[in-house]
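Repro case for the chain-ordering regression, as requested:
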Amino acid sequence: MQLQKPPLPIIPPIWAQSRQEVCESFDYFRSYQSGVYFSNDIVKGYLLGGSPASRDIFHDKGRLIISHGGGKAESILDYRRVGPARFQQAQDQEVTDKSVRALLKNYTNRRPLVLLVDDKYALFPFNLGASGYTYVVLGFYWISHAWAEYQPASNGCRRVVRWKFAFRWCGPDDPWWTASKKEGIILDAVTGEFLNFSPSTSSQPLSRSSSSTAPNDITTMTCDVCSKKSPVIYSQGWMCLNPSCSSFWSLRGREPDQLDYDAVFIRPVAAEFRGLPDLRPGKPVQTIDHITTSYAFSKGWHCEKCGRLSTRFKWEHWECSNCHSIHKVPGRLRVAKEFWHQRPSTEFLHSHIGKHSGLIHKLPHLCSPSSEVRDILQHNVLTLMLTSCRGKIHLILGTPLANKQADEIFRQYQEQADKGELLLRRYPLTANKLRGTFLTNYFSQNSGEPYKYVGGTGNTVPFDRAPSSVCGALALIKERSRLALQIDIPFNEILSAAYMERQKMSFHSDSERGLGPVVASLSLGSAALMHFRPRAASKKTKQLAIVLTLIIRHGDVLIMEGDGVQKYYEHTVIPMNFRIAATARCIGT
Ligand SMILES: O=C(O)CCC(=O)C(=O)O
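-- result from build under test --
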């Protein structure tokens, strides 16, 4: 029978419930797929999760952790697919594999890295999941040894070369999870309540480990065949651990069945790592320019009250997803003039039509405005006809005079979003394959009719309660669309999207059921690149190349006319910096 693990006796100093919270808030771990996070060949963070391989250990209360790392393990592909799961077979790891190479570099340079565990890591002695801690940061470790082993695998060779790493606690203090019960309180992350720790629930004595430590000098022996040195790791005897040697993994001429670590190899080792930085991310602070839409402001934060890492999911401030503490940095409003200097890369200096796109480009023409506004509105309109009469794309360029309206709408958007009168949020993506929620890479708010694509239907504000920024954007879009299409479009929904620096809207098509054939959006603030590409016929088909790139700037209105634009193409918008867009649609018409 498996013993029930006790709950954590203390609040972890740094923890999270989703991988995105970790990656957006904790600089030492920013990898969404791999368990090893490295940059420039240096490992910064290593995530321990899942079932242990043979001889993986969590020893001496976690001061020594031995783990197999570096990828190429057996894995399930497309695990959300209906039907039998497809497996990727395990493969031999090589010293040249990027993560193995980086881990080995940390080892040779004695460079500390940060270990994290998730609630599936079987060797952690506490039940993290029961308290809602999905990811927990353990602290700084250094790699005292790295060596290769054979591990059984269900591939053709029945075994693969895996690299093992011995991670040792850097100290100088004891690991935080070994604090005595009296010192600790439990935070129940599911209910958000602080609980007193009940001693009877623990089956683990939390005594201090032996303080007697030894230097890291393990006996090594030289292989007669390859002349390479390997350490004495197993109590059963010494083996050559060079995977390219013919006597690799051979114990007295035979492959070993049972191996245990030698007592000397796993004894406590003295570590002298002083002056390591505090791992708790600092609070974001005001900058000299008072700009609060730069990249640093889009990142998550660490709640000093309860230790939770949270994404920046509200526009107006950071909020802890656990205890709801708030952190706000006051900023200033930005004006369109600040983005005039922006030049997209030379590749996209001008709107660009792919060579084999089949798109017909109508030269910019002057579009006659309706009679009452004729003398003030003269807009350049770029119209692109899609192949096989699939539809048209019109880009109505703003003019300095007409942009006065856009400037005011931009100002109101910022003011109302900052005060929380316009609730801009990052909503969960429905097509997420990661554990936990995964939020869009932009903030949005929907007004008018519900639009399922973002935020579900529950977060929509009817037009009669929508703030003036949204109503102003709707009026401007209606006016410009009438100008370009010579008809009134009965727009009944507006999605306002706000992007901080480096945020974007990924490829998608607005193909919601009941969507009318005209979709029009107003651009405010920074310039953006809008790319169109044909939709892949199926998930398995190779994605086709971009056929059209438009540069959209402050005050421009882009119109997608015809169902075919959404049916045959998808688009992405990549702003060059802080930008707001209001996209109007006709829903359920
Ligand atoms: O212009 C933008 O920022 C994105 C508009 C868009 O693609 C959408 O709302 O679906």
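Ordering looks correct now. Residues 495, 497, 505, 510, 521, 571, 573, 581, 583 surround 2-oxoglutaric acid (CB under 6 Å).
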